[in-house]
Amino acid sequence: MSAAKSHLEILPRGLQVALLLGLLALAAFPFFGTDFYASMVARMMILAIFAMSLDLLQGVTGLVSLGHAAFFGLAGYALAFLTPAGEPASLWWTLPAAVAAAGLAALVIGFFVVRTHGIYFIMVTMAFAQMVFYLFFDNKALGGSDGIYINFKPHAALFDLENRLVFYYFTLAVLVAVYLFLRRLLWSPFGRVLAGIRVNEHRMRAMGYGTFGYKLAAFTLAGALAGLAGYLWGAQTGFINPELMGFHMSAHAIMMVILGGMGNFAGAIVGAFAFEYLLHLFKDLPDIGAFRAGKHWQLWMGLFIVGVVLFAPRGLLGLAAGLLRRKEADHE
Amino acid sequence: MDLANFLIQLLNSVQYGLLLFMLAAGLTLIFGIMGVVNLAHGSFYMLGAYLAWFLSSRSGSLTLAIAGGAVLAVLFGLLLERLLFRHFYQRDHLDQVLLTFGLIYIFEEMRSMLWGDDVHGVSIPAALSASIPLTDNLSYPVYRLFMSGVCIALAIGLYLLISRTRLGMKIRAGAFNRDMTEALGVNIKRIHAIVFAIGVALATVAGMIASPISSVYPNMGSQVLIMCFVVVVIGGIGSVRGALIAALLVGAVDTFGKVLLPAVSGMLVYMLMAAVLLWKPEGLFKQ
Questions:
Q1: N or C of chain B: less Cβ packing under 10 Å?
Q2: Do B102 and A306 touch (CB under 8 A)?
Q3: Which helix (H) or strand (E) covers residue B194, if one does?
Q4: Size of the A and B interface in Cβ pairs below 8 Å
Q5: Contact between chains at A123 and B101 (C-beta distance less than 8 A)
Q6: Cα→Cα distances A235→A50, A161, A170, Å
Q7: Where are the transmembrane segments (chain B) (predicted)?
Q8: Interchain pair B98, A254: CB under 8 A
Q9: Which residues of chain B are within 8 Å of residue A1 when distances are taken between CB atoms?
């Protein structure tokens, strides 16, 4: 249903260079930015991983999930439960365990939701995420509505995440690894089948592909990668609560993917950075007389979202790619 | 649970189910006929509740507030349809999801700017504040019966409108084949505006009549929206009859779940939904 919009699979050369420069800037950032901004950028990178995981469903396979935050939050909770009260947990086994927990939940939920289509899929994913939300919200044993503190960041020989710089570069490495993995996947036979499902699922079935299995695999993988982001989020903030699995968090992920541009994982990264930056900007707006503009950030965010839908449905990368292509055409 | 207690829970579950039906009917009607998924539907419920509180605290009469509020809300809905929704009927669902998600933010913040973030109570009109005794120490409030009555009256009205009137015929024809209906000389734009207004009116009235028993608070819209989704998914998208049966089912599971299985009551309706999906992936009454 979004086939027409996501032809960003291949970016113009100029944009690829710009993105590579962006990566270099990220690598150099901790040496120039303050601690405050470095931890903000680390948070943006975590959300970028989350947004990329959703783009595998939304931009590549054409499945818009309004419940993706469930897997993000579940992995954060997994870290919280696996961290002992008085000492840090080992990164080596809590990370795979949290990712596996999110992936397993995605497999089970995926079994139900992948059978549905289009608008149904949107509603059903949202409802299942809500079910997970209430499981934690209603149960004091799982932290209830107050959430749980994670007192120690996970740690392993070289990777003591308690160290800010180590955490930053660890997150950057995960970001790059997930990006490369997903790009590789996009151009693999598996990725081509997913793209085929987005364009025309009936035709793929007619050609003999078991689309249910492919979609379930994509949903599970996307859930596991969202878990990877959720684990890092839990480690960074040291706190996890049901809101992280809520409707707004899921909708924000969709927004990030759209804002950057769907179908190219770099778009999800750009979108996550842009969205978080705007959020920061809106919350910091100065007062205008008695009018507290920053307090009403939701209004600006809402107007901005409506504006994007109306005027830039292909996202920032789509916009830039369009401009570059026009320029190239002028030269010829 | 003795008989009187059971009766009370049963009445409560029907009342909650009927309230959900009013919301889900609008949601599924707008989707079935215009193909628009409206995440901001819950915001109209919230708007109704706030209007009921605001107007009744100013005028002193809930009846007056409901009448005035319904007119205001429908005008607001028609304006929104003309300015925004009209341009999204033919666009893909993702755009609609985003647009209406943006609207949720805008409505929430405007509510906060206009009416603040406090929780408000609305008092039940004197004429409806009595209780009917069931046994020596159990009684049932008249207002809840009144709520169910309003919902049933509106449901019957909606049914008659769609199945028995000329306008209803045009609505059904438009949902079946938009272009053909237009070619036959029906002003489909006006039909869509009317359907949208009906949906808005149902959600707003639901919010207004629910305000005395649920109180009026921020974010009340999102909670109810998710329940509506569950109802629509169970009932089958676009089916008003499906929405009625699913709403009553959800009302019963939720109400009895809270009494019988309090530990997992928050999840029960979602389990119901999962079970229905396993059995019928398109809902009970797919059109």
A1: N
A2: yes
A3: helix B188-214
A4: 121
A5: no
A6: 15, 8, 12
A7: 16-40, 60-80, 142-162, 193-212, 224-252, 259-279
A8: yes
A9: 92-94
Asked whether residue A201 is assigned to any structural domain, the reply reads yes
Q: What is the CA radius of gyration of chain A?
A: 20
Whether residue A29 lies inside any domain: the answer is no
Q: B167 and B195 in contact (C-beta within 8 Å)?
A: no
In chain A, the number of structural domains is: 1
Report angle CA A187, A191, A193 to the nearest 5 degrees: 125
Give the torsion sign (CA, A115, A118, A123, A126). positive
A55 located within any domain: yes
| Interatomic CA distance for residues B273 and A116, integer angstroms | 13
3-state secondary structure chain A: CCCCCCCCCCCCHHHHHHHHHHHHHHHHHHHHCCHHHHHHHHHHHHHHHHHHHHHHHHHHHCCCCCCCHHHHHHHHHHHHHHCCCCCCCEHHHHHHHHHHHHHHHHHHHHHHHCCCCHHHHHHHHHHHHHHHHHHHHCCHHHCHHHCEECCCCCEECCEECCCHHHHHHHHHHHHHHHHHHHHHHHCCHHHHHHHHHHHCHHHHHHCCCCHHHHHHHHHHHHHHHHHHHHHHHHHHHCEECHHHHCHHHHHHHHHHHHHHCCCCHHHHHHHHHHHHHHHHHHHCCCCECCECCCCCHHHHHHHHHHHHHHHCCCHHHHHHHHHHHHHHHHHC
ipTM of the complex: 0.86
All structural domains of chain B, each given as residue ranges with its CATH number in brackets, are 3-279 (1.10.3470)
Question: Tokens 């927004």 — which residue?
Answer: A255
Residue pair A66/B97 in contact (Cβ under 8 Å)? The answer is yes
Cβ of residue A139 closer than 8 Å to a chain B Cβ: yes
Looking at the complex, does the CB of residue A178 fall below 8 Å from at least one CB of chain B?
no
How far CA A197 is from CA of A2, A209, B13, in Å, comes to 11, 9, 42
Among the partner-chain residues B94, B105, B113, the one whose CB lies closest to the CB of A301 is B105
Q: How far is A53 from chain B (nearest CA, A)?
A: 17
B261 inside 8 A of chain A by CB: no
AA letter at B119? V
CB contact under 8 A, B230 and A127: yes
Q: Does A114 touch chain B (CB under 8 A)?
A: no
Instruction: Decide if B232 contacts A123 (C-beta within 8 A).
Output: yes
Is residue B79 less than 8 Å (CB to CB) from chain A? no
Q: Which of B61, B22, B20, B66 is nearest to B47 (CA)?
A: B66
Q: Does B275 touch chain A (CB under 8 A)?
A: no
C-beta atoms of B274 and A112 within 8 A: yes
Note the pLDDT tens digit of each residue in B37-93.
899 999 999 999 999 999 998 888 888 898 899 999 899 999 999 999 999 988 888
- Crossing angle of helices A69-82 and A211-237, in 10° steps, is 50
Alpha carbon A248 to its chain centroid, in Å, reads: 13
Instruction: Give yes or no for residue B178 having a pLDDT over 90.
Output: no
Give the confidence band of A4 by pLDDT, cuts at 50, 70, 90.
very low
Chain B residues lying within 8 Å of A118, measured CB to CB? 93
